[in-house]
Design a protein that fits this description.
With 424 residues, the chain is α/β, with parallel strands linked by helices. Helix content is 38%, strand content 13%. It is built from 17 helices and 12 strands. The radius of gyration is 22 Å and the shape is globular. The mean pLDDT is 95. The structure holds pyridoxal-5'-phosphate.
Length: 424
């Protein structure tokens, strides 16, 4: 039987048998006991599936990963300790020294740093392209060593919207997968796999948890990318892994299982960025109401964006739900029910106006965070982008007077009144 996404949010990933706990049990155990060493040996050889050490797999995490995989319409999923770890693992699972990545330039600052600085130190280079580039510009970014294309459905903090079909088509023309970070819309508002993405990643820290309680990440494989058809590009998946008894992942686990099995048995084994079972449990509580919360985040953000748009103190508003927004039409295509609860706007008075505006807010708190139940805001010029001067900020598309507001789940009239008082 197949269920709608709302039902999957509540129930997917865990089906208790007779007499078992109704809620996903927290298996707070590092290790698992076996009667014979032969039985355990078969697990180590990936001959049987089962648990032996929580760094590799844990039942609580697996239930929650299975739910996220179902929500995204993928064949397999895994949890990681953070969104940063999810994006690193998704890329490094198919890249090695000498590989090249094509990435949208409009991505989360932490991911930009990961790709452009830290992965560069590993000998993995990248070419960044505008999310608005033409097919020709996109094609020109590829080299013979390109192994992946990367982008964010709705970029944090720029709020640009990725043309997933355009990026997927380019990736596939060049025989590599498209990896999409779908943190901001969540699968409730967009499922990138339905538009051609091959791998989906998440910072579950944001809307999926939704309560600002637990840092976490997730990776989902669509099971659609044929590694064997491009075997020379992805030897890690298509040739024997000597560190795992000569297993060839794409042969043994097939098109739907190879990517996540390799990612677990190599990268999680060696880097150990696991999510704690306790955090996976908290994440699942968030997932159970994700489909109820997302429409409210969108409703509040739409109302706040429209209010800001009507005010003389506001120079510009960026929110794809506004008909005047550059990404309005493309957002309507990929996210007909709306995108997310994050709005950004620039005050006429620049840096000084932003500072005094934020000081006067009572309900909307100043935080380095987005996407939880409580509304919060940030002025990048005085926080995350503090090292840049006003000209550099302008060039980076983050003018000094820019404020990013994450609309929570409060009453929208209270949010608008808080903003109105601060503006006046
Ligand atoms: C926050 C965020 C990340 C990083 O996630 P962490 O859980 O903080 O490590 C990655 N991508 C996007 C789009 C984000 O918003």
């Amino acid at each position: 039987m197949s269920f709608k996404i709302d039902t999957k949010c509540v129930q997917a990933g865990y089906t208790p048998k007779n007499g078992e706990p109704r809620q996903i049990p927290i298996i707070q155990s590092t290790t698992f006991k076996y009667d014979t060493s032969e039985a355990m040996g078969r697990l180590f050889d990936l001959e049987d599936s089962g648990y032996f050490y929580t760094r590799l797999q844990n039942p609580t995490n697996d239930h929650v990963a299975a739910k996220i995989a179902e929500l995204e319409g993928g064949t397999a999923g895994m949890l990681t300790s953070s969104g940063q770890a999810a994006n690193f693992f998704a890329l490094f699972n198919i890249c090695e020294c000498g590989s090249h990545i094509v990435s949208s330039s409009s991505i989360y600052g932490g991911t930009f740093n990961l790709i452009s600085v830290t992965m560069a130190k590993m000998g993995i280079t990248a070419t960044f392209v505008s999310p608005d580039c033409t097919d020709e510009e996109l094609d020109a970014a590829f080299t013979e060593n390109t192994r992946a294309v990367f982008g964010e459905t709705i970029a944090n903090p720029a709020l640009t919207v990725l043309d997933i079909e355009k990026f997927a088509a380019a990736a596939h023309r060049h025989g590599v997968p498209l990896i999409v970070d779908n943190t901001f819309p969540t699968p409730v508002n967009c499922r990138p796999i339905e538009w051609g993405a091959d791998i989906v990643t998440h910072s579950t820290t944001k809307y999926m948890d939704g309560h600002g309680a637990a840092v976490g990440g997730a990776i989902v494989d669509s099971g659609k990318f044929d590694w064997m058809a491009h075997a020379d590009k992805f030897p890690g998946l298509t040739t024997p892994d000597e560190s795992y008894h000569g297993i060839t992942y794409a042969e043994k686990f097939g098109i739907g299982g190879a990517f996540i099995t390799k990612c677990t048995s190599q990268l999680m084994r060696d880097f150990g960025c696991i999510q704690s079972p306790q955090n996976a449990f908290i994440l699942n509580l968030g997932l159970e109401s994700l489909h109820v919360r997302m429409p409210r985040h969108v409703e509040n953000a739409q109302a706040v964006a429209e209010f800001l748009h009507s005010r003389p103190e506001v120079k510009s508003v960026t929110y794809s739900g506004l008909p005047s927004d550059k990404y309005h039409n493309i957002a309507k295509k990929y996210m007909p029910n709306g995108g997310c609860g994050v709005v950004s706007f620039e005050l006429v008075g620049g840096r000084g106006a932003a500072e005094s505006f934020m000081k006067k807010l009572k309900l909307i708190a100043i935080e380095t965070h987005v996407a939880d139940a409580r509304s919060c805001c940030l002025n990048p010029a005085t926080s995350t982008h503090r090292q840049m001067n006003d000209e550099q900020l302008e060039a980076a598309g983050v003018p000094a007077g820019l404020i990013r507001v994450s609309c929570g789940l409060e009453d929208k009239d209270d949010l608008i009144n808080d903003i109105k008082n601060a503006l006046e």
